[in-house]
Design brief:
single chain; CHAD domain
């Protein structure tokens, strides 16, 4: 699945000046425009809500991740409250988007022969659709609330305020290529360290944490790639995307499995015999897929290592 901001560096011309604080604001302003557009689509076009919500969550997560990584270029007092707001915003969008993804995964599983023979997942699909509708209504109310409108207005004012050019913070005055290159290399090293620690006994949460580290690295690459030669950045993003897609498929299966188990244990919902048979069939199929996907990890990791070794990340620091 696309992160929405891939290759954004090809859309925006490089700045004449490369002060880190100005460059970070330019990147965050791009994400703000994506968020603003996705929010409008979510609120005004009901039939576009799935895609709009995806873009909204991508923009919110990218903003929060970039702001956390680049927080040293700004005044800490100004950024702390902003980070808290972005954390809350991320939680709002993630809840609904996770349900959307789970529902889509469930409908896809319904096409498997073992599930069709069991009677299908109709009971679970209908229950999830009701839950999605309910959470969408809550998100719509939150996006239209005065606190949200005020926050977004203040955020835009912050991004467009050019007074940061007078900042005396050392990181703010550095060349963005130095700052971004350093952080990208560190994010890559964290990802590699975590990936090498994965074994066949690692709990699913370990792969989920690995996926989050991969996302943070890709947000940096896609956001700040405009300040580096495209021939250096594009291969890094492409190779990382393949690894993320693999981890995403594994995580989607885990989330669906946990959701189905939770629904089956809900005393407020009475499952039919057909639903019970479908539940057993779906969980059996998911367990089989988990074994297959876990067995592919080493191959997927080796593909990433071969396509984007550390020297290519280190080359971003070369002038």
């Amino acid at each position: 699945m696309s992160l929405g901001l891939s290759h954004s560096f090809l859309r925006s011309p490089p700045l004449k000046k490369h002060r880190a604080d100005q460059a970070v604001k330019a990147v965050l302003l791009d994400q703000y425009r994506l968020i603003r557009d996705a929010r409008r689509r979510f609120l005004m076009h009901p039939y576009d809500r799935v895609d709009a919500l995806h873009d909204l969550r991508v923009g919110v997560r990218a903003t929060r991740s970039i702001l956390r990584e680049m927080r040293r270029v700004f005044d800490a007092k100004k950024i702390q409250s902003q980070l808290q707001w972005w954390r809350t915003f991320s939680q709002m969008t993630s809840t609904v988007r996770d349900l959307d993804v789970t529902l889509a995964a469930l409908k896809a599983v319904d096409e498997e022969p073992i599930v069709r023979l069991s009677g299908g997942s109709k009971w679970f699909v209908e229950a999830l659709e009701k839950e999605v509708d309910s959470h969408q209504q809550h998100l719509e109310a939150a996006l239209c609330s005065l606190p949200m409108k005020h926050f977004l207005r203040r955020w835009e004012q912050f991004l467009r305020d050019d007074s940061s050019s007078k900042s005396k913070l050392s990181w703010a005055q550095k060349d963005i290529r130095t700052v971004a290159g350093t952080l990208i290399l560190k994010a890559h090293d964290r990802l590699m360290t975590a990936a090498r620690a994965i074994t066949e006994d690692t709990a699913p949460d370990g792969l989920h944490d690995l996926r989050k580290k991969a996302k943070r690295l890709r947000y940096l690459l896609a956001g700040f790639g405009r300040y580096f030669p495209a021939k250096k950045i594009s291969p890094l993003i492409t190779s990382l995307k393949g690894f993320q897609d693999y981890l995403g498929q594994y995580q989607d299966g885990q989330v669906l499995r946990q959701r189905l188990i939770s629904m089956s244990l809900d005393e407020d919902q009475s499952m039919s015999e057909e639903a019970i048979h479908a539940f057993k069939a779906i969980v059996t199929w998911l367990d089989q897929k988990e074994i297959t996907r876990r067995g592919q990890f080493e191959d997927q990791f080796m593909v990433l290592l071969h396509a984007a070794p550390r020297r290519r990340y280190r080359a971003l620091m070369d002038r």
